[in-house]
Design goal:
Layout: H1 9-13, H2 24-33, E1 43-44, E2 49-50, E3 59-60, H3 63-78, H4 82-85, H5 91-103, E4 110-112, H6 116-130, E5 136-139, H7 145-158, E6 162-165, H8 171-174, E7 179-185, H9 197-206, E8 210-214, E9 233-236, E10 251-254, H10 298-309, H11 316-338, E11 344-345, E12 357-361, H12 365-374, E13 377-378, E14 380-382, E15 386-390, H13 398-413
Parallel strand pairs: 2-13, 5-6, 5-7, 7-8, 8-9
Antiparallel strand pairs: 1-3, 4-10, 9-10, 11-12, 12-15, 14-15
Helix pairs in contact: 2-13, 3-10, 5-10, 6-7, 11-13
Length: about 425
């Protein structure tokens, strides 16, 4: 899965459309030259333009058959024997090994289990216990809600801890000798702003604190190198860029150097050193396996495994470069073709500072989003006023970006969004 960074790397990471060209023909030329383009055929995509893979990844074509096999043959015929014969019991570690190259980790440092929220709780609890005498979890306001909610829950449970939030650009200065854990999202879920893992981790280590990174909007879209950045802990979800399906299992990372020191607060059966010895007393497993808790979700794991398998055939350097370039093209086209309609860019303009999605603020973002969906351009809305578009590099085309902006332009020029039918908020936005 190593990235091909040989003689073709320069042309692959260059901006795909120069300043003199951003028309449909230019987009089509980029698609024709795109080394990632063949991957699109390996996904089931509906008609229209799907730009919400940062929220729910598209369905890999192999997934349905794989799940049918798990249900009909493995579960239906082989039943309980499948834990051994089909290695159901090894899914958490096997899928962790598939994720490790995407986040710059060693294979034995990543585990797939539970949900992002549950994994956050495990690692927050483990980190706080490992830093006795320190009382503060440091995060930023506007972090993804589950990160803050789970941190608040850990603080309430322990009773003598504090969750403190400061703006992201003040984080480094705010880390002090009372900071036990810094909890941050690498790529912000609304703005797409990307933080410097290495610099913030180094600042925390200088003060004796640990850092926990949420990679939910990073893994599979932007380059991450946890080991090079000397990261401590990380979590991420499986249903966005990794295309594991709705509610797919999540992953966690614990640096090898910390695996003996840290102990999960959820000391479940599967995290025991010998679960089938059925001992009364808990004894944590060696290594990353101690962060298992309950029985693996076999069907969810099987679906996620098909999504992860696709990355084994991809030049990762080219993939990450494409995600960045798609977002950059979208920003430029929105400036050029929709600049008079009241949109304000809420994401970094610099490709290097941005993840795989781009957000624009607009006071009517919700009905605009619904009007676009009605015309087959699927993005999403994030309160209070963000129109968010995601550019999953494995299946998004440059032509999709051009066509999406043309549709936005038409919706705005015709005021098609200004219809009461588009203003009623659904439960999921």
């Amino acid at each position: 899965m190593a990235a091909d960074v040989g003689e073709t790397r320069e042309e692959r990471v260059a901006y795909p459309i120069d300043e003199s060209g951003s028309g449909l023909n230019d987009a089509r030329r980029c698609d024709a030259a795109d080394p990632i383009a063949p991957m699109r055929k390996r996904f089931h995509l509906p008609e229209g333009i799907y730009l919400d893979g940062n929220s729910l990844g598209a369905l890999p074509r192999d997934t349905a058959a794989a799940l049918h096999d798990v249900v009909e043959r493995q579960w239906g015929n082989d039943l309980i024997a499948s834990w051994n014969s089909h290695d159901w019991i090894g899914q958490p570690q096997r899928l962790g090994r598939l994720i490790s190259p995407l986040i710059g980790a060693r294979p034995h440092e990543v585990l797939v289990a539970d949900t992002t929220s549950v994994n956050l709780f495990k690692l927050i609890g483990a980190a706080l216990t490992a830093r006795p005498g320190r009382t503060t979890i440091l995060s930023e306001p506007g972090n993804f809600p589950t990160d803050l909610y789970v941190a608040e829950g850990a603080v309430r449970m322990l009773g003598d801890r504090l969750l403190k939030t400061v703006p992201a650009d003040c984080i480094v200065d705010a880390i002090d000798d009372d900071t036990a854990l810094v909890l941050l999202t690498h790529v912000h879920y609304t703005s797409g702003r990307k933080l410097d893992i290495g610099a913030i981790t180094a600042a925390a280590h200088a003060k004796g604190a640990l850092v926990l990174w949420d990679l939910s909007h990073s893994a599979g879209a932007v380059a991450v190198d946890l080991n090079s950045d000397k990261a401590d802990l990380a979590v991420g979800c499986g249903y966005k860029y990794l295309s594991g399906g709705p509610g797919a299992p999540a992953f966690l990372f614990v640096a090898e150097r910390l695996q003996v020191e840290l102990k999960s607060p959820l000391s479940g059966w599967m995290g025991h050193d010998a679960p089938f010895a059925f001992d009364d007393d808990y004894r944590p497993a060696a290594g990353i396996a101690r962060f298992l808790c309950g029985t693996p979700s076999v069907l969810g794991m099987a679906a996620l495994e098909r999504g992860l398998a696709l990355f084994g055939d991809v030049d990762l350097a080219a993939m990450f470069a494409k995600a960045s370039a798609l977002g950059g093209l979208y920003i430029r086209l929105m400036d050029e073709r929709c600049g008079d309609f009241g949109f304000t860019l809420a994401s970094p303009r610099d490709d290097a500072a941005r993840g795989g999605h781009v957000s624009h603020a607009h006071e009517d973002a919700y009905p605009i989003c619904q009007a676009l969906i009605a015309r087959g351009v699927v993005g999403d809305f994030r309160a209070p006023d963000m129109l968010r578009m995601g550019f999953a590099p494995l299946y998004t085309r440059y032509e999709d970006v051009w066509s999406a902006v043309e549709t936005i332009r038409d919706v705005m020029a015709s005021r098609a969004w200004d219809d009461e039918v588009f203003r009623t908020r659904a439960k999921v936005t």
